[in-house]
Design a protein that fits this description.
The complex is a heterotrimer of chains A (660), B (148) and C (372).
Chain A lengths: L1 H29 L2 H30 L6 H6 L6 H6 L5 H22 L5 H25 L22 H30 L4 H32 L10 H26 L3 H21 L15 H25 L14 H33 L2 E4 L1 H18 L2 H4 L7 H7 L1 H17 L6 H16 L1 H7 L6 H10 L2 H26 L1 E7 L4 E4 L2 E13 L2 E12 L2 E6 L2 E5 L4 E5 L1 E5 L2 E10 L5 E8 L3 H19 L8 H9 L6
Antiparallel strand pairs in A: 2-11, 3-4, 4-5, 5-6, 5-7, 7-8, 9-10, 10-11
Chain B lengths: L2 H30 E5 L1 H6 L7 E8 L5 E2 L4 E7 L4 E7 L11 E8 L5 E8 L8 H10 L10
Parallel strand pairs in B: 1-2, 5-7
Antiparallel strand pairs in B: 2-4, 2-6, 3-4, 4-5, 6-7
Chain C lengths: L1 H22 L12 H19 L4 H23 L8 H26 L9 H7 L3 H17 L4 H13 L3 H15 L3 H14 L6 H13 L5 H12 L3 H12 L6 H21 L6 H19 L4 H13 L3 H14 L4 H14 L14
Classes of the chains: A alpha+beta (660), B alpha+beta (148), C mainly alpha (372).
Chain lengths: 660, 148, 372
């Protein structure tokens, strides 16, 4: 009964969203406050019903109810409980439900936290959210219903073993929160276009939402990358695979959006561009979730695709993207134009940031879609590989990174480039030192690597220049300096940390790309292999059977200078229900670097084939992302960004307000 | 700075970035792409030895020969044609006979294919769409064959 | 029933949620409380605070404040120009309320009645465990056995047992899989080959597939006394339309001295059936079965003339000649085969055994021995 109630709840949510698609917007047109007021409550109700539905599906997964087709296809009664739960969204139907659930969460959040929005704006935003909800609920109900039933089966077909991992339990939901979060900015843009009015307050309302989305997207991409790195056993952390590109595209344009919204908020200009960017970002998010799934693009890790759904998805995509752009083309001219501004100024730097980010997003998009277009025209199948992306994207990132430290130091309206350059001298100095050291101490590797390291150093050190400037350090003395640092607005800290995070990630990428070593060793029991000064001894292997898989476990000892530093157990697992093997690599972290050992196979003569990578400084890639996520969170706590009502803020100010 | 020079400056900057991006894209598209083909297409095409291509097909049953060390040879087929592939690295987990795989590498002088990358799909029902199309055309597609 | 009551409650909640704001007393929120004006006020407040904190206000802050104040003025002018809110026309409220009260439940129920399975109860793992007490142990046993064999894949006894269980559970596919494992470990014994062939035949819906046919052939060539593979071979031949040959096998089988009424009956039934079938095709002058087998044998013979064949091929050739009632040719073939395998005593012995079994005469002893 619980399953069926879940199904019913899903359908009620659909009916409610049909209602919410029409009534509040009609209210906004006719200025009827009652009609508009339905939006807040119905968005909460929709969230409630979708939660019921999602909960029911999760319950079916938790109890291994194989009378539900979806559960039967993607679960197994002997799976660990955590993976039974995560199996709920480890498949197409369940993940669609999760997607819609998050959409409902965001819509309800606008209803709850958006009390300071103008009423018509809120009604329109919630109306647009309801369009999205209606469409995707319709899609679920029609083509991917997770509540379809069957005659009860005794055992399930198991979750794809590659997905039975803690990384999967968290990373797709994270990405989804990111993707779906941009639906709010999309809804705000459409609402602004419908009302034909937009001001700098709009940017203030949109910024926290896009910040939330951006934080989750950043975290999701970083986790996805780490998941691929340790689970797929190829030792790669980024493949420029369509799925990855699809998540990276909205990240690029979302980053641009964050910056352009800043200009709009402060200077009341760049409005049309910001609206367009918000539309593009969400379109790219839709592309990220669905294009890969439509089967148009093939990728190394996707859910199995179904052409019937593909067509539907393409129709939805073109309706929303096309519709939004159409509306934009018609209404954008009604929006107030902002003026031009001086190239050497904060806003000038932010515009340059936008130009570079959107251009690089465009090149990634071209690389991702080129095979589809090429095939449509010539019929030949091609693939666009990593070299393309490394070249185009890399080349566009370098100027961006070079200019980045300047941005926050320049004043609004008119900046003083010479003064700023002087403040950045120490960052330049740091960069030169790093380059010299790198040339001196690192022997092999391409000539460009030390240069790139210098640029990373320039970025990391330069990111903190604004902090130094504002605190007056080191001139004013440590005490006042630190007191001032502590008193700085959190958004300034956030900018510095986020920019430094980009530098840290870049440093990790440069290190790994230029200095990683890879070797393959075939070892008999007791034999040793060497990698980057570590000695790896093969002690023997065992086979054992655990829960729903069996595994071949290889025991290794890792020594440095004769001393045992780690014990590694890379393994190969076999999942009988799907007749599918997977690899579990042994990853050993030393400082920021990792020794990555994957088991190739156990040969008939009991020798093992190991693939050993030395990945210098690789964890910096993800540490940098952690910094970016942290910075995003920090900027949200800046009270300027708070979504709460102004009155509340005022009250707080009257008391002895703590700084920040 | 007058309004006009300001505007020109912006247009110039944006134009420059775009021009560079377009140039890079065109340049990289010439070298960064590789053709993906089935054994029949490879035979029919004018791919020169040494040119990088992706080759996809089914690993023919009984064709996998393991040499010393990691050397492995197998035959990729698409019903009409076969290509011998040699590879000297660890095969992916899902590599097995009768499985659809993608290899990347180039033709050797003797007409056999030297692969440096072998990709097997991480979903046993999954086959790259382009390959499934081809194999369906030729009637070799073994979509969801029973596992027993 | 409980389901429909719960559903009705859900539907009521859904309708109520959206109807409530429509029917409750009008609370037109003072609009200025929720407009951009407030946002600007807040912004200015913050700048004022900042200015207070800094004591010596920077010019950037004051100019920012002035700019915001300007935007605020503009906004205020715009807002007074715009309309007052109304609660909304009565008719539109009535229509919407109706849509909420009727439309939402009706749409939901219509959709559910076409998509849902209202009667179907949940069927979680715990319920299954209690329900199928009888089936569960065997299922469990089999799963345990499978798991055990994953760890000890070379336990041939285990695989054999599992194959038996699968056979009884009527899971021929799994049985075949297990038997292949046994063969991998123990090698191709005629009995195993026959069992595997049988399993494959059952999988194929009692049509003997080519692979199984080969297995029966191989089993017979290894041990021609075995009954089971011969029965299946007869089945295969019959299915291939070679009823004559099938009949021959059954006639041979019937000659076996088995004290078993059922067996005798089965054999005589089969013979009767096949004789009818052969009789039906007797109208055609030439007998295609024999014709075909002749061609096949000739092909094999000429191939073995040119190149060295395997022991099995030679055995098959000799056997075929005997079956075709050509003992001389069989003897000649035997002689050639002996020559070829003269250096491998094992094979030679097998040949001799075969000759003895089939009663093939030795050519050497006959006066025309020189003829070749």
């Amino acid at each position: 009964m619980i399953v069926e109630l879940g199904h019913m709840a899903l359908l009620i949510a659909f009916s409610l969203s049909v209602f919410q698609s029409i009534v509040p917007m009609w209210g906004a047109r006719t200025n009827s406050s009652k009609l508009m007021a339905t939006a807040d409550i119905s968005s909460l109700a929709i969230l409630g019903f979708i939660t019921l539905a999602f909960g029911a599906l999760m319950w079916a997964y938790a109890t291994s109810d194989f009378s539900v087709v979806n559960v039967w296809q993607n679960s197994h009664s002997q799976m660990p409980f955590l993976y039974k739960l995560s199996g709920t969204w480890g498949n197409h139907e369940g993940s669609m439900l999760l997607w819609v659930f998050i959409l409902a969460v965001f819509a309800a959040a606008v209803g709850v936290f958006g009390k300071n929005l103008p009423t018509t704006m809120r009604a329109n935003v919630l109306g647009v959210q309801a369009w999205l909800l209606t469409t995707f609920l319709f899609f679920i109900v029609l083509t991917s219903n997770p509540f379809a039933r069957q005659a009860p089966a005794l055992e399930g077909k198991d979750l794809n073993p590659i997905l039975q991992d803690i990384g999967l339990a968290i990373h797709p939901p994270m990405l989804y929160v990111g993707y779906v979060g941009f639906s709010i900015t999309f809804a705000f843009s459409i609402a602004a276009l419908i009302e034909g009015r937009i001001d700098s307050a709009w940017a203030r309302w949109v910024r926290p939402w896009s910040m939330v989305a951006w934080i989750f997207l950043t975290a999701g991409i970083a986790m996805g990358s780490y998941w691929a790195y340790y689970e797929l056993g190829w030792g790669g952390w980024w493949f420029w695979d369509p799925v990855e590109n699809a998540s990276f595209l909205p990240w690029l344009s979302g980053t641009a959006l964050l910056h352009s919204a800043l200009v709009m908020e402060k200077r009341d200009s760049l409005k049309i561009w910001t609206v367009l960017l918000a539309i593009i970002t969400f379109s790219l998010s839709l592309l990220g979730t669905f294009l890969v799934r439509s089967g148009v693009l093939t990728s190394v890790h996707t859910f199995a695709s179904d052409p019937a759904r593909g067509l539907f998805i393409l129709a939805i995509l073109s309706a929303f993207v096309g519709g939004a752009l159409f509306l934009f083309a018609f209404r954008a001219s009604r929006l107030e134009q902002g003026g031009l501004f001086a190239p050497i100024s904060r806003e000038g730097a932010l515009v340059l940031n936008n130009v570079l980010l959107s251009t690089s997003a465009a090149t990634v998009l071209i690389g991702t879609l080129f095979p589809v277009v090429y095939e449509a025209i010539t019929g030949a199948k091609i693939s666009v590989g990593a070299p393309f992306f490394n070249l185009t994207f890399g080349a566009l990132m370098i100027p961006l990174v070079l200019v980045m430290p300047f941005g926050p130091l320049l004043g609004w309206k008119r900046g003083d480039i010479i003064a700023v350059s002087q403040r950045l001298l120490f960052a330049l100095f740091a960069a030169i030192v790093v380059i010299i050291l790198a040339y001196g101490f690192l022997e092999r590797g391409p000539w460009i690597a030390p240069l790139m390291m210098g640029i990373s150093a320039w970025l990391i050190v330069g990111a903190f220049a604004e902090l130094l400037q504002r605190s007056g350090l080191p001139k004013v003395g440590l005490k006042t300096g630190f007191a001032r640092l502590a008193g700085l607005k959190r958004s300034i800290w956030a900018t510095a940390i986020a920019h430094a995070g980009v530098g840290v990630t870049m440093l990790g990428i440069v290190f790994v790309t230029a200095y990683e070593t890879e070797s393959v060793a075939i070892l008999k029991q007791g034999e040793k292999a060497n990698s980057a000064g570590y000695e790896i001894t093969f002690n023997g292997y065992q086979t054992r059977s655990v829960a729903n898989y069996s595994e071949e476990l290889v025991q290794l000892t890792i020594r440095k200078n004769g001393k045992i530093v780690r014990v590694g157990t890379p393994s190969k697992r076999f999942y009988p229900a799907r007749q599918m093997p997977t690899s579990e690599a042994s990853i050993n972290t030393f400082g920021f670097s990792q020794l990555y050992i994957a088991l190739g196979e156990v040969k008939p003569d009991n020798s093992v084939v190991l693939r050993i990578w030395w990945k210098p400084m690789i964890t910096l890639i993800w540490l940098g992302s952690v910094l970016m996520v942290f910075a995003g969170g920090l900027s949200l706590t800046d009270r300027r960004a708070r979504i709460g009502s102004p009155k509340l803020a005022k009250n707080r100010n009257l008391g002895a307000a703590p700084i920040g | 700075m007058t309004r006009k020079t300001n505007r020109l400056l912006w247009i110039g900057t944006i134009g420059c970035v775009l021009a560079i991006a377009v140039g890079l894209t065109l340049f990289a598209l010439q070298s960064g792409i590789s053709f993906a083909m089935s054994p029949s297409e490879l035979r029919a095409s004018s791919v020169k030895p040494g040119q990088r291509v992706r080759l996809f097909g089914l690993v023919e049953e009984g064709s996998v020969i393991r040499g010393e060390g990691l050397k492995v040879g197998f035959v990729l087929s698409d019903a009409d044609n076969k290509v011998k592939v040699s590879y000297n690295n660890i095969l992916p987990d899902l590599f097995r006979e009768n499985q659809g795989i993608i290899t990347e590498g180039s033709l050797g002088a003797d007409g056999s294919f030297v692969a440096d990358t072998v990709l097997a799909k991480h979903d046993e029902n999954y086959m790259p769409a382009d390959m499934a199309d081809k194999l369906k055309e030729k009637g070799v597609w073994k979509g969801e064959e029973a596992s027993n | 029933m409980l389901f429909w009551i719960s559903s009705l409650i859900l539907l009521f909640v859904a309708s109520f949620c959206v109807v409530w704001p429509l029917v409750k007393k009008d609370t037109v929120v003072a609009d200025e409380a929720t407009s951009s004006l407030n946002f600007y006020k807040d912004q200015i407040n913050q700048i004022d605070q900042e200015i207070q904190r800094q004591k010596k206000p920077s010019s950037a802050l004051t100019s920012e404040r002035a700019e915001i104040a300007r935007r605020m003025l503009r906004e205020a002018r715009r807002e007074t120009a715009t309309i007052k809110r109304s609660a909304g026309g009565r008719s539109s409220l009535v229509v919407t309320s109706l849509a909420a009260v009727l439309g939402i439940p009706i749409l939901s129920i219509i959709l559910y009645s076409s998509l849902g399975a209202s009667g179907q109860a949940d069927f979680p793992l715990s319920a299954r465990k209690n329900l199928s007490l009888k089936d569960q142990p065997i299922e469990d046993l089999v799963q345990k056995a499978e798991k055990h064999l994953i760890n000890k894949p070379n336990d041939s006894k285990g695989w054999k047992l599992l194959a038996d269980v699968y056979g009884r559970l009527n899971r021929p596919g799994d049985r075949a899989r297990s038997l292949r494992q046994v063969i991998r470990i123990e090698g191709k014994t005629p009995i195993l080959l026959t069992d595997l062939g049988e399993a494959l035949t059952v999988v194929a819906g009692n049509i003997v597939p080519a692979e199984a046919r080969q297995m029966f052939d191989e089993a017979i060539s290894q041990d021609s006394e075995l009954v089971k593979p011969r029965i299946y071979l007869a089945l295969a031949l019959d299915q291939e339309g070679k009823s004559q040959e099938a009949l021959r096998i059954w006639e041979n089988l019937a000659r076996l001295n088995v004290n078993d009424q059922e067996w005798a009956k089965l054999a005589s039934d089969q013979i009767k059936r096949l004789k009818q079938k052969v009789g039906a095709s007797q109208g055609t002058p030439d007998r295609p079965g024999i014709e075909e087998i002749n061609a096949m044998v000739q092909g094999l013979a000429s191939r073995l003339e040119d190149e060295e064949g395997t022991l099995q091929e030679w055995s098959r050739l000799i056997r075929s000649y005997m079956v075709l009632d050509e003992p001389v040719k069989a003897s000649l073939a035997l002689e050639k085969a002996r020559k070829q395998f003269s250096r491998t005593p094992d094979d030679l012995q097998k040949l001799n055994e075969l000759a003895k079994q089939l009663k093939v005469a030795d050519v050497v002893r006959s006066p025309q021995g020189a003829k070749e």
